[in-house]
Design a protein that fits this description.
The protein is mainly beta. The protein has helices at about 1-50, 55; strands at about 60-70, 70-80, 100-105, 115-125, 135-140, 155, 160-165, 170-175, 180-185, 200-205, 210-220, 225-230, 240, 245-250, 260, 270-275, 285, 310, 325, 330-335, 340, 345-355, 360-370, 375, 390-400, 400-415, 420-425, 435. The chain has 4 domains: about 35-130, Pantoate--beta-alanine Ligase, Chain: A,domain 2 (2-Layer Sandwich), CATH 3.30.1300; about 135-220, Sandwich (Immunoglobulin-like); about 225-325, Immunoglobulin-like; about 330-435, Carboxypeptidase-like, regulatory domain (Immunoglobulin-like). The chain has a 6-stranded antiparallel sheet with strand order 24-23-22-25-26-28, with no helix packed on it. It has a 4-stranded antiparallel sheet with strand order 1-2-3-4. A 4-stranded antiparallel sheet has the order 7-6-9-10, with no helix packed on it. A hairpin with a 2-residue loop joins strand 1 (about 60-70) and strand 2 (about 70-80). The chain is elongated and about 95 Å long.
């Protein structure tokens, strides 16, 4: 009985081994067939590309599908003008587009990694195929430290040309008529920004005759600088956390200083300034929304407004350590005679700076707390910090059954060593008006 069982077990093992061998052999034969078919499709695609006009091959990137013997093959065809000296696109001065490199890559479902069929060859321009009187432009995109940035799109207006920078940060457009071509350089797909923190920029690309003109652009991974705020308590040496709704970032080579607003212009204890191009030296940062909010416009090292300015470097693709800005304090008290007025509306309008949409002057609205000081609510703490500037202050409340308001047309808030104080008495008839502050 035992001998029968052993014989049966041996038969089962042997059968399983033969079955596995058959499956492996069939699978191997199928993969070999797929590889052969894919290579044949790549050869056919190379012949197709070789018959195309040279200008059509430049920056060609085409994918199509072919079904052969019930297998779906994907064929990717690419073409690129390259330089004879470097065998790549070249953006250096005096570079030429000597020939076209064409590539045919074929893949199929279930293939092993790296098993695709690929053929790369070159097509040399024949006599007269490229007009020697025409020229071109080569766009080179790098970081400030000259690190190549691939994946940046360059698009000529009206479809004049389109391409994407390669691993060397270069894209070449040969065989163009002489002239100036409006174009857009965009780092959006690559997650890059230019020196102004924008994902794209409009440029004019010059194309000379019988020459390829090199043009340089800078894009990089954006950085972030968190900014925190504090303000002085009265004339003491103590500080309390503050909040801001906007901040300006400036760098010498930016087209213009850039304003960053918090969501819905709400006052926040920390503002994340992003996206910023990662220059290798610091940005100048200050609270507010325009140049008149800059406490140190001349950049003097020992200027009295220096604590209200921060300097920080934005790391490429990262976040810097938080920096702190001191806001000058306005200690404003709203009262009715000797009593503090809770629940009064206070509007403080910057006399020179406009709000986010640029339609009207920047206005900050508060409600006085139980101490009669501007706050986010009657029970909240006083909000005394403001950007460096000159303001108009208005307070309004229901006084003896009537809505009364009073304005102070000029309030200068430019002191960091002590708070600026302001008292508005709605019980005093001098300057008193009917209605609510706007």
């Amino acid at each position: 009985m035992i001998e029968v069982l052993v014989s049966a077990l041996v038969l089962v093992v042997a059968t399983a081994g033969v079955t596995g061998l058959i499956v492996t052999t069939v699978s191997t034969q199928a993969e070999q067939r797929h590889g052969t078919e894919a290579y044949a499709l790549a050869q056919e695609d190379q012949a197709r590309l070789s018959s195309m006009q040279l200008p059509r091959l430049n920056h060609l990137d085409q994918t199509r599908e072919v079904t052969l013997n019930q297998t779906l093959f994907k064929i990717r065809s690419t073409g690129l003008f390259v330089n004879d000296l470097t065998s790549t696109q070249s953006c250096i001065q005096g570079a030429t587009a000597d020939y076209v490199q064409i590539s045919s890559s074929v893949t199929w479902p279930g293939m092993d990694k790296g098993e695709k069929a690929e053929i790369v060859s070159i097509v040399a321009p024949t006599t007269g195929s490229l007009d020697p009187s025409r020229g071109g432009v080569a766009v080179s995109v790098t970081s400030e430290q000259k690190v190549a940035r691939p994946g940046v799109e360059v698009t000529g207006t009206g479809g004049a040309f389109y391409g994407m920078t390669d691993a060397g940060g270069c894209v070449v457009f040969p065989d163009l008529l002489k002239g100036n071509y409006p174009a857009i350089i965009s780092g959006q797909k690559a997650g890059l920004v230019n020196k102004d923190g924008k994902s794209s920029e409009e440029v004019t690309l010059p194309v000379p005759e019988a020459e390829i003109k090199p043009v340089a652009a800078q894009f990089d991974y954006p950085g972030t600088i968190p900014v925190e705020f504090k303000t002085r308590v009265g004339s003491t040496s103590s500080f309390t956390p503050a909040a801001a709704d906007s901040i300006v970032a400036n760098y010498t080579t930016m087209t213009a200083a850039k304003v960053f607003w918090t969501p819905n212009s709400a006052r926040e204890p920390t503002v994340k300034v992003t996206p910023l191009f990662p220059f290798t030296s610091p940005y100048i940062l200050y609270a507010g929304s325009c140049a008149s909010n800059n406490p140190n416009p001349s950049g003097e090292p020992n200027q009295p407004g220096a604590p209200a300015v921060a300097n920080a470097i934005a790391p490429p693709g990262g976040t810097a350590a938080p920096v702190t800005i001191q806001l000058p304090a306005l200690e404003m008290l709203v009262k009715n005679g000797a009593s503090a007025v809770a629940g009064a509306k206070v509007t403080i309008t910057d006399k020179t700076c406009k709000e986010a949409k640029g339609l009207s002057l920047m206005k900050r609205v508060y409600t006085t707390n139980k101490s009669g000081m501007p706050s986010s609510s009657e029970n909240g703490v006083a909000e005394q910090g403001l950007p460096w500037g000159v303001y108009e202050a208005c307070a309004s409340a229901n006084i003896s059954g009537s809505l009364k308001r009073k304005k102070v047309t000029t309030v200068t808030v430019k002191t960091l060593t002590a708070a600026t104080t302001l008292t508005v008495d709605l019980g005093n008839s001098t300057g008193l008006e009917s209605g609510e502050c706007p």
